[in-house]
Specification:
The structure is a homodimer. The first copy, chain A, is an alpha/beta fold. The first copy, chain A, is built from 15 helices and 16 strands. Chains A, B: Its main location: endoplasmic reticulum.
C-alpha cells in the first residue's frame, strides 16, 4: 500500500508539466468523444441480441466473427483480417435436468436449477439415477471415499463471502468445477454435481469449463443453483437422497474458428505493436454480455475513438477479438504462435475480460520500472475512474503472447462485486450492462493505450 | 489531486503502528461479521417489499417508522425513540397522464411516460390541453417569452454525458425541476413538462421535488421519460404539437411524522455524540430501495454490527432514520432544532444517501486538520473499498445539524454511474440493489465511525 502511494508521487520525474497538459487535453477529448459518440453500447446490443450466446464452434460464433470483421472495418481499422485456428466444438445437446427422486423413503419429483459443465460428457440416454454423497470439499471426499461408489458426488464448496474481491473466492472454488468429476470418478462415482461458483442471492446455475483426467471414467458433471445447492446439502445431512441427472453434452469434431484482428498501422515504429482485446466466444446459457461482450465492444470502441479523433499511433496496434477463451484457449494460443513466427514485435498487451462495470483501475504484470511508469499516469486517468494500478494482471487471451515475449500486460479492473452473480448464467444479458459503465471502461483502456504508445 | 496523495502520506504522524494493527484487526472482524451475519439486505427486503414507497405523511411512511423502531431495538440499541415533527402531506392523487393529441393538422393519441413532480398541484379536473412550447433552457424561454402564454412549456435540458460524476449533471439540471413551473407561469404558461433529470437509456419518468414561487400562478408540473422527451422535442421542431396533461397532485394538511433515533450510549464521553443516518421517506413511484432504503439499512447495520461485536463506543451514537428528506427536509431540520436545545454535543455526522452501490470512499466537509486526520485512515479502509476521501460531502438530512454546530460531516460515496438511471422512478426497487455492494457500504461507514469515535 505504501508502495502504491510512493509510485503515485513519481509523476513528475516521468512526465514534464507540458506533457501532462497535452495528455490531459487529449484524454478529455477522448472521453468526451466516447461519452457522446461511443458505439460500444449499440454494438453490444447487436452482439447480444442479434447473435446471443456464441460458444466456439457454434453457428453463432461464426456470425460473431463476421460481425466483428464488419464492425472493425466500419470503426476505421487500416486492415482487418481473420486468423484461423482450430477450436473445440462442444455442444450442450439438450435441456439439462437434475431431479430429486427420493428423499428418505419418500418418492418425490423436485427439479433443481442445473447446467451441465462445459466440455462434460452427457449421461447415458435416459439419464442416471443414484444416491447423492454430499461433501463440503475434497478432504471430506477423501475421508469418505469408500462411500462414493455408484453415487453422484455433490461438492458443496461455497464462495467465501469475507473475501472483498470476489475473484479470490472464484479462484478458490474453481478446482471443484475443473477437477471435481475426475476426482469423484476415481472413487467410483457415476456423476458429479457442484455448487455453482458464485456468491449470488439467486438460484441460477453457473456453467464453465471442466476437464477430465484420462485415467478415470468420464462421468457427467453439472452445477446447481445456490438455493438448490443449500437445500440439497441440508437434505443430504438428514436422510438418503436420490438424484436423477440427465445431460447431453458431447464433442463434435474440432472446427475452424477465427481471431478477428483489426490493425492500426504505426507511424513511427510500425513493426512494434500493442495488442488490445477480449474474447468473442461466450457460454451458451446467456448472451455473453459482461463475459466478454463488454471486452469486445470496448476493444472496438478504442479503435473507433482513435480514428474519430484522428489519432495516429506511433506503434502499430492490434485490436483482437479472440476466438476461444471459455473452453479451450485456442484463440490466444494461436495468436501468440503466429506472433512468435513474425518479425514484428509486441511491446504491450491489454485485455478486458472482467465485466463491463465501472472501472476502478488496472492490474498490470510487469517489472518494477514499467510498473512505476504506468502508475505515474494514475493522475491522468483518475478523472475517468482509475484510482488504482495493482501489481498483477493481464488476461487469459493475451497470456500466451505475454509469456512468450515477456512483455508488460494489463487487465482492466472494473468494479467486480456483481460479476460472479451473473457469470456464465442466463443472467449475463445485455440488460445487465450499464451504458456509462461500459463506456468508462473503454475510456480508461484507451487512455492507457495512448500513454503506452507515447511513453513506452 | 496532489493534496490527496500528500495527506495519505501522513498516516504515520497520526497513528502508531500498534494502533494501526489494533484498528486493522477490529475492522477485519467488523467486515467479516457484516459479510456473514449482516441483516441489511433482509431488512431492505422488508422495507421495500412489505412497505414499499413511503412519502412523508403516507400510511406507508408510518408503517416504516414503526418498522424502524422495532428493528433498531432488535439490533440492540440502548434506547430507541421517535422524534415527532410536522411533515408535508402531498399526494399524487391519481394516475398522471400526458397524451399528445395533435401533431400539425393531425389528431393523434400518443401517451407519454410521465410523472407529476412532487409538491406540484394537479391540473383542473379533466386536465389541460394546450400547445407545447419546447425550449432547451431558461435562456431560450426568455428569448421566446412572448410565445408562452396559454401554452405548456417543455424544458428539454439534458444531462451532460461528459461529466464523469453524474451528480454534477443532476446538480445542473435540478433548477428546471425545482423552478421551471413558476418561471414558465411568469410568462403565462398553463403547465410545464420537463425532461427527466437523468441520463438513462430507458423511458422511465423521474419525479422529485419542485416548489412554487407564490408570485405566479401555480401551474401543473410533470416530468417525461427521456425517450419520449427526445421524440416530443423533435416533433416540436417540425410542427405545432398539442399536449393533454392530467395530474392530480394536492396537499392534505401537514401531519405528524417521526425521526426514528436509536442510541448507543458512550462509555467515556456519553454527552458527546456521533450521528449516522439516512432518510426513511421515499418517493411513491418505486420502492425507495437505493433512495434511501440503502442508507436506512446501512445505518441499522452499523448499530447491529457494533453490538454483535461487543464494541462499546467512547462517544454516544445516534442512528437516525430521518423523516422527510424528499419533499420538505422537515426531519433533518427538527433533529437539528432539538439538538440545539440540548446540552449534549454532536461531534461528527455521517449520511448515506447516494445509493447502495459499491463504496469508493467518502466526501467530507471539514477543516484541513480534520480532513488530514480522516484521510490518514484511508489505508485502513482501503481493503474494503475506500480509495478516496473527497474534500466535500455530507448529506441533506445531517445538513442542518452540521451547519448549526459546525461539525465535520461525511457522506458515503458509492459508485454512482447507475444512480440517476433509477433515481425517483419505478425502477428504484429491491432488485436493483446488490447484497454485497450494500454490505460493503455499511462496512466502510462502520469503519469510519469507529475511527472517528476512537481518534476524534
Amino acid at each position: 500500500m505504501r508502495k502504491k502511494i510512493f509510485f503515485a508521487f513519481l509523476l513528475f520525474p516521468f512526465l514534464t508539466r507540458a506533457q501532462q497538459a497535452t495528455d490531459s487535453t487529449f484524454l478529455k477529448q477522448l472521453a468526451d468523444n466516447v461519452l457522446t459518440q461511443g458505439q460500444a453500447y449499440t454494438l453490444l446490443h447487436q452482439l447480444t441480441k442479434q447473435i446471443g450466446g456464441r460458444l466456439a464452434g457454434s453457428p453463432q460464433f461464426m456470425q460473431a466473427v463476421l460481425w466483428g470483421e464488419k464492425v472493425m472495418k466500419a470503426a476505421g481499422a487500416d486492415s482487418v483480417y481473420l486468423q484461423p485456428c482450430m477450436v473445440p466444438h462442444w455442444v450442450r445437446g439438450g435441456k439439462d435436468k437434475a431431479v430429486i427422486t427420493q428423499m428418505g423413503n419418500r418418492k418425490v419429483q423436485k427439479s433443481l436449477s442445473v447446467t451441465a459443465l462445459g466440455n462434460s460428457l452427457g449421461t447415458p440416454k435416459g439419464g442416471i439415477t443414484a444416491s447423492v454423497l454430499a461433501v463440503k470439499n475434497f478432504e471430506e471426499l477423501e475421508a469418505r471415499k469408500n462411500e462414493a461408489k455408484g453415487k453422484i458426488v455433490f461438492f458443496n464448496y461455497p464462495f467465501n463471502p469475507t473475501y472483498i474481491v470476489p475473484g479470490r473466492a472464484y479462484g478458490e472454488t474453481g478446482v471443484y468445477r475443473r477437477n471435481g468429476a475426475s476426482i469423484a470418478a476415481k472413487y467410483g462415482a457415476v456423476g458429479v454435481v457442484i455448487r455453482s461458483l458464485s456468491g449470488s442471492t439467486d438460484n441460477n446455475a453457473h456453467t464453465g469449463v471442466m476437464a477430465y483426467n484420462d485415467s478415470f471414467p468420464k462421468i457427467p458433471a453439472a452445477a446447481l443453483g445456490l438455493i438448490d445447492a443449500d437445500s440439497l446439502y441440508a437434505w443430504c445431512q438428514r436422510m438418503p437422497v436420490q438424484l436423477h441427472l440427465e445431460t447431453y453434452g458431447h464433442f463434435l469434431p474440432d472446427t475452424v474458428g477465427y481471431n478477428v484482428v483489426g490493425v492500426l498501422r504505426g507511424t513511427e515504429l510500425p513493426h512494434q505493436y500493442i495488442t488490445v482485446g477480449g474474447h468473442l466466444d461466450s457460454w451458451d446459457e446467456g448472451e455473453g454480455a459482461h463475459d466478454d461482450g463488454a471486452g469486445i465492444v470496448q476493444t472496438i470502441e478504442i479503435l473507433r475513438a482513435f480514428k474519430a479523433l484522428g489519432y495516429r499511433p506511433k506503434h502499430s496496434m492490434h485490436f483482437v477479438l479472440f476466438a476461444n477463451e471459455e473452453n479451450g484457449m485456442r484463440g490466444g494460443n494461436e495468436y501468440a504462435r503466429v506472433a512468435a513466427q513474425q518479425s514484428d514485435e509486441p511491446i504491450f498487451a491489454l485485455e478486458s475480460d472482467e465485466g463491463g462495470f465501472t472501472p476502478r483501475g488496472f492490474g498490470c504484470s510487469t517489472n518494477a520500472e514499467k510498473l512505476a511508469l504506468i502508475r505515474s499516469w494514475i493522475p491522468l486517468l483518475q478523472p475517468y475512474g482509475t484510482d488504482v494500478i495493482n501489481a498483477n494482471g493481464g488476461g487469459a487471451d493475451i497470456g500466451p503472447l505475454v509469456r512468450h515475449f515477456h512483455i508488460p500486460a494489463c487487465g482492466l479492473m472494473p468494479d467486480n462485486q456483481r460479476y460472479f452473480d451473473i457469470h456464465h448464467t442466463k443472467a449475463d444479458v445485455f440488460e445487465a450492462v450499464n451504458k456509462r459503465e461500459l463506456l468508462l471502461g473503454a475510456i480508461n483502456m484507451a487512455g492507457l493505450v495512448y500513454l503506452v504508445d507515447k511513453y513506452f
